[in-house]
Design goal:
alpha+beta; 2 domains; seven-stranded mixed sheet; binds zinc ion
């Protein structure tokens, strides 16, 4: 059983609608006005320098603007972040070849300002759990002498507990103001079982997963090709004043592709674990290696070093951790401990690393295995109570010599099985 933190948004109606309506209207109009001021500013910067400022630039430009003080500072910041997200969404559409996509426009409803959503973060609200009230802060300009805040009496679904409130959004929908309350709940998730698996994160195989009697390999070919392609675009388009627009787009696209790949891969690994009743997953990360960028550590070869980006492994590890947790799997992350030198079958530690063409050959027992499968199995064994006593006995290394390989299919957006390649002993 694992305890998992989940974030849920609960919609609530406001009982004292009549009392709070004017106050919320004022804030909603203020949010729309601030959006328009920021949109106008972004347009000016764009015309002048050909670049759209991001939210941090907009924040520093506008923090002393009169309209900024109409809302609580965090609420104002959120409006600028929303505009930034809208611009990014538009870049995404354009990068995907959608020429008809329009940049975010002004917030208008006829000749008037619409009631835009207002977001309240930690210092923008106070929750009275006992009485079912949420107090929302106004901005310096909108405070009146008799009231600094708007006190909303809310009605949420009686089946949910409004607790650990993270964010509150005042949303005008169907002609009235409502609250979207974002809560953090601690829930118990049942473990899928008591088996153990090990993951070895690597370079040519981004992940090798060992279940003891079965090994799965996930090569990173697609990622490597994307990386190669977008790096070329980036270099070609490097202007005199740093990265050109096209180069920046290439950089961003590559980042998004890698993220997508990691999401799909981590989800797939966790799904495979759940299917096999795995309750504990050991992830061998490359901490020990990636800190030695000067090559003083293990030699991965020219291409290996080029591909070795610590944060990419970090991203994948983090995803495995939270997806595992959500599935009730305990995920343990540890640095590799000589996992590539030790034979997972007999436990013999080879003095020289005998890896050739991705195959590990044991000089003691004479077995040959896929090197990444061998590493993953060693990582798995570190979680077993006493691997030397029983688990290494009678092991057939067939599953390590012939792991099942799944390659990423970009059109389908998932990993599909490759035909098993027979390894020569
Ligand atoms: Zn051996």
């Amino acid at each position: 059983m694992a305890i998992q933190s989940v974030t849920r948004t609960h919609r609530a109606s406001i009982r004292n609608q009549r009392q709070v309506r004017d106050g919320l209207d004022t804030l909603g109009f203020a949010a729309a006005k601030l959006w328009n001021v920021a949109r106008w500013t972004a347009g000016r910067v764009w015309d002048a320098c050909g670049q759209i400022p991001d939210d941090s630039v907009l924040k520093s430009y506008l923090k002393s603007h009169e309209r900024y003080a109409d809302l609580n500072a965090q609420s104002s910041q959120r409006v600028l972040e929303e505009l930034d997200e809208a611009f990014r969404g538009w870049y995404g559409h354009r990068d995907n070849g959608n020429e008809k996509a329009n940049p975010p426009g002004y917030r208008k409803s006829g000749d008037e300002h619409p009631r835009a959503t207002v977001t309240f973060k930690e210092d923008g609200f106070k929750h009275d759990e006992k009485n079912g009230y949420i107090r929302l802060s106004k901005g310096r300009n909108t405070k009146e002498h008799w009231s600094d805040f708007i006190l909303c009496a809310y009605d949420a679904n009686p089946d949910v507990t409004i607790e650990n409130v993270q964010v509150v959004r005042a949303v005008f929908e169907h002609g009235e103001w409502r609250l979207h309350i974002v809560c953090r709940h601690e829930i118990e998730v049942e473990s899928p079982g008591d088996r153990t698996a090990g993951v070895d994160l690597g370079i040519s195989n981004i992940a090798a997963v060992s279940f003891g009697d079965e090994t799965l390999l996930f090569p990173g070919g697609w990622l490597k090709e994307s990386k190669h392609y977008y790096k070329c675009v980036e270099y070609e388009c490097e202007g005199e004043n740093g990265l050109s627009r096209r180069a920046r787009n290439a950089k961003r696209t590559l980042k998004e592709r890698r993220r997508h790949f990691h999401h799909t891969l981590s989800k797939r690994i966790i799904d495979e674990c759940v299917e096999r009743s795995v309750g504990r997953l050991m992830v061998g990360d490359l901490n020990g290696i990636r800190s030695e960028d000067d090559g003083a550590g293990r030699n991965w070869g020219r291409h290996g070093n080029k591909m070795l980006h610590g944060w990419a492994f970090e991203q994948l590890t983090t995803m495995l951790e939270y997806k595992g947790k959500a599935a009730g799997i305990e995920v343990v992350v540890d640095s590799e401990r000589d996992t590539s030198k030790t034979c997972a079958v007999c436990g013999h530690k080879n003095g020289s690393q005998r890896v050739e063409r991705g195959l590990y050959h044991c000089e003691n027992c004479g077995r040959t295995a896929n090197a990444d499968a061998n590493g993953a199995e060693n990582i798995r064994q570190t979680l077993l109570p006493n691997p030397d006593a029983f688990d290494r006995l009678d092991r057939d290394n067939g599953c390590m010599a012939q792991p099942a390989t799944y390659s990423f299919d970009a059109t389908e957006g998932r990993f599909l099985p490759q035909e098993r390649v027979r390894c020569e002993p």
